[in-house]
Amino acid sequence: QQRLGRAPTFGSKIRQQGKRATRWHLRTCRAKTCVAGNRELEHGAKSTRGGTTDAIPVMARKAMRSSMLLCAAMRLAAIKVAPRLMSTKAQEVQAWAAMEPGAPLVPHSFELAGKPPPGHVDIAVRFCGICGSDVHQIEDAWGVASFPLVAGHEIVGEVVAVGDGVTRFAQGDVAAIGVQRSCCGSCVHCGAGDENVCPSITKTYAGPNKDRGGFATMIRYPAGWVFAVPTGLAPESVGPLMCAGITTYSPLKRHATRGDRVGIVGIGGLGHLALQFGRAMGLEVCRARHIYIY
Hints:
Blueprint: H1 10-20, E1 24-28, E2 35-36, H2 39-42, E3 58-60, E4 75-79, E5 91-98, E6 105-112, E7 120-129, H3 132-138, E8 154-162, E9 174-177, E10 180-182, H4 188-191, E11 202-203, E12 218-222, E13 226-228, H5 235-238, H6 244-255, E14 261-265, H7 271-280, E15 284-288
Parallel strand pairs: 14-15
Antiparallel strand pairs: 1-4, 2-3, 5-6, 7-8, 7-12, 8-9, 9-13, 10-11
Helix pairs in contact: 6-7
């Protein structure tokens, strides 16, 4: 593209770096024969105050036949990380980062000091989906990104260390992370169990604390915002459910009942999941590639 006088696109930058990378491999996640959904996921990634959040349950298997549907939002960066024992020493984390708005991703490293603080876990990232909002953040389209920016919020990995007070996770557990890492815990929305619309929401990465996301070998995260992945659920399929999955599952769960006729506009990374959720819920699903408003 540069030789032809055209500016390289973000996608082409990803492909170029993928060729240069020796430890990272882009894999395409297939839509597997199972779906996850529970009340916590219905409202987005929810806190676990009181220890009430359960592992993500399998909602339906037999309706998920279209395992060959592929989409850019479900391409995963598979990171092979050797299991690590809990250590009090600082650990170096390898990542892909944008050093400035719109810049291509380059290898980047940072340190995590000591063991996780109370209430936190360290997760060795195995898979992380690529979401459209990651592209917006890398380009700083919303003016809230912090650089160097390590994106990624469709994360699946293995718990390798737990901080004091964490009882829901142990080393070796498979866990998943979505788009939110904290809330205020005191507003009317948090009190109603709708932490995902808390006005003081903190996202997975960037934000005031310059947190880093899942395009890395490890992430440190509040345990209350981490989901346990059920045994038997393919971990490479879980990542997109933490963002594209909940985005489409929630409105279907809230507003549709078995036998309803539902229209899905746009069959992309989200839409193709909505089709499969709808079928699993016993809905009559209609798909549309375009919609015209007169």
